[in-house]
Amino acid sequence: MAIGSMLRRRWLPEKSFPSYAYLPGRQPHPVRDPAGHSYNSEAMPSAAGASLDSDIFLWGLDLFNHGYYWEAHEAWEGPWQVAGRGAPLRTLFKGLILLSAAGVKIREGKQVAAIRHAGRAATLLRRLNTAHHTFERALGMPPAALAEHAEAAARLPAALQATALGQPQPVFDFILGPRPGERPINSQRNR
User: Fold this and answer.
1) Residue 1 to residue 27: CA distance in whole angstroms
2) 47 sits in which H/E element
3) First to last CA, the chain
4) Does the CA dihedral 40-84-10-175 come out positive or negative?
5) The whole model's pTM is what?
6) Main-chain phi, psi angles of 4, to 5 degrees
7) Residue 178 to residues 5, 51, 89: CA-CA distances in angstroms?
């Protein structure tokens, strides 16, 4: 089901991944435990992150695509909080947060919770108006297609490989982000 992370593009290759992919109860909590990978580290500013060309959105894509689902959830939490209530962008970020939570639950082997989170994500993603294709371009697929992928991934037990504790493991058979040759929305990046 999952594809190797070596085939997955990086949007912010200069930024190092965390030292482990957090799974609740298996490693130190990343921000609350002094042994956590992000303890006392400064978060990316979220006020500037409520856009699809922000570093925080791109960092969330990198984290998600490479199997750091808890960390992707955290990355997208700030932009979700500052996006305008009722705004489509807020709906998108909430859908991505829930999809990340589904990834955590798949990694934990908690299928019922994964199905619930993926279903909630899918409901939100299907609400998005895709007439202007902004979200499709940012995600690499229409939000409704992402909703279908999310639900399918949660329904099927993931064929997880044995990995070392904390090693990230992508569990979805899709990659988020603009298609090859495209740039993030309004971005001048040359990645």
Assistant:
1) 25
2) none
3) 27
4) positive
5) 0.86
6) -60, 145
7) 17, 14, 16
List Cα–Cα distances, 111 to 54, 68, 69, 82, 125, in angstroms.
Answer: 32, 18, 15, 31, 20
Q: Cα(162)–Cα(25) distance, rounded to whole angstroms?
A: 18
> Residue 31: what pLDDT?
78
CA-to-CA distance for 101 and 98, rounded, in angstroms? 5
Instruction: Give 189's pLDDT tier (boundaries 50, 70, 90).
Output: very low
Neighbouring CB atoms inside 10 A of 77's CB total 18
The DSSP output letter for 90 is: H
How far apart are alpha carbons 57 and 63 in whole angstroms? 10
* Whole-number Å distance between alpha carbons of 187 and 42: 24
